Amino acid sequence: MRRIIRGQHFCFFLIGFAVGFFTSLVHFHLSPTVDVINCGINRRASETNIRPIRIKETNGRIEDDTNGVFARPVNFKDSRRHTDASSVAERLFRDVRILCLVMTYPKNHRTRAVHVNATWGRRCNKLLFATRESDPSLPTLVVDVDDGRKYLGRKTRAAFSKVFSRYSQDYDWFMKADDDSYVIMENLRYFLSQQDAAMPVYFGQNFSPFVEQGYPSGGAAYVVSREALSRFAKKNRGLCSFNSNSEDADFGLCMELLGVSFGESLDSLGRTRFHCFNPDKHIKGNYPDWFYTYDKFKGKKKGIENMSDYAISFHYVRPNSMYTFEYFLYHLSPYGITKSLQDLNTNVTAA
Predict the structure, then answer these.
(1) How high is the pLDDT of residue 25?
(2) Residue 153 has what pLDDT?
(3) Is 243 left (phi over 0), alpha (psi -120 to 50) or beta?
(4) Which strands make up the sheet holding 222-225, listed edge to edge?
(5) Which 3-state string (H, E, C) describes 295-334?
(6) How far, in Å, CA of 3 to CA of 253, rounded?
(7) Cross-strand pairs, 62
């Protein structure tokens, strides 16, 4: 009898193990995931020490693997309580007109794009999501290019070409970002207020291989002048190839061939403004090995003392963290401390 019972227990164990394994396998294959892409370079997670973000939708709730739950974009609804002096930012909003072009695709519309739209994207003069399908809940720019990293260069070229034909006279600067980038638009406008949009120039975090003058990290966002966009839209097809699977390097080489200068973006104290990782990684300075080869400064710009008080962008920002940025930047203030404006553009090398 004992042998029969033990045999039954063992059978139940095998059946339970098989069911559990099969369920996990199905869940793994059906759950949409987001690949780890470091600053525009394809790397395995084990090579970068960055854990992949996994986002799924369950019963109408959007969740990521940090246990953040997003049924819909967050609205703080406390604007009436704020009496911040914003006249300088409002003036720059009028004077430095920026079109933001955010790369996304249909699968990310509800898990990422809507949160960009609800946070920093609201501060663009014009926000467009470059994607393969239109979406009534988002300001989309439909481009007929397949999804996937290997098509990102062609997608960027198609999107910039459409933007030029429709909006080139309405804006001064044109920024490309990813749907997991976070951009402090006020700081970008402040930086660009000392630059000339009529000059062939663009800015971003400076990577040094492959292109003589360097090229910008795609994840950290980069911004091109009206003249640079004009040259790109009119002449790139005769000179530029976007087939290397590295959109940012291809774009940088194209800009160099078109005579567009890659300008310096450090502040007047030599601190960084564009960042291809999230703040934690730049503060700690525990960069992956490849970064020391690609970065213009060989990874020496690390820690808070090397990050500008007027930082412009960060990358690998999860949807829930976008609202954390919003709270700390635009809502939380230490009582009794009023920050004065700093002059961090003086002595910055103009392109």
Answers:
(1) 43
(2) 85
(3) alpha
(4) 140-142, 126-131, 98-103, 173-178, 222-225, 201-204, 261-262
(5) ECCCCCCCCHHHECCCCCEECCCCHHHHHHHHHHHHCCCC
(6) 74
(7) 57, 70
Q: Which pLDDT value is given to residue 234? A: 87
**φ, ψ of residue 30 in degrees (nearest 5):** -90, -20
For residue 146, the one-letter residue type is D
Q: Any idea what DSSP says for residue 170? A: T
pLDDT at 8: 52
CB 317 within 8 A of CB 116: no
Integer CA distances (angstroms), 20 to 16, 31, 59, in order:
6, 16, 21
Is 103 in contact with 179 (CB distance < 8 Å)? yes
Strands (E), the chain: 37-38, 41-42, 55-58, 61-64, 69-70, 98-103, 126-131, 140-142, 173-178, 182-183, 201-204, 206-207, 215-216, 222-225, 261-262, 313-314
For the chain, first and last CA: distance in Å?
Answer: 88
Compute the half-sphere exposure of residue 31: CA atoms within 13 Å on the CB side of its CA.
19
pLDDT at position 243, please? 75
Give the C-alpha separation, 301 to 285, whole Å: 8
Predicted local confidence at residue 188, as pLDDT? 98
Residue 183, both tokens: 């951009």
H or E, element range at 345: none
pLDDT profile of the chain (351 residues), mean per 10: 48 50 43 42 41 45 47 73 83 97 94 96 97 95 88 90 95 97 98 96 93 92 97 84 83 94 95 95 92 91 94 96 94 90 77 47
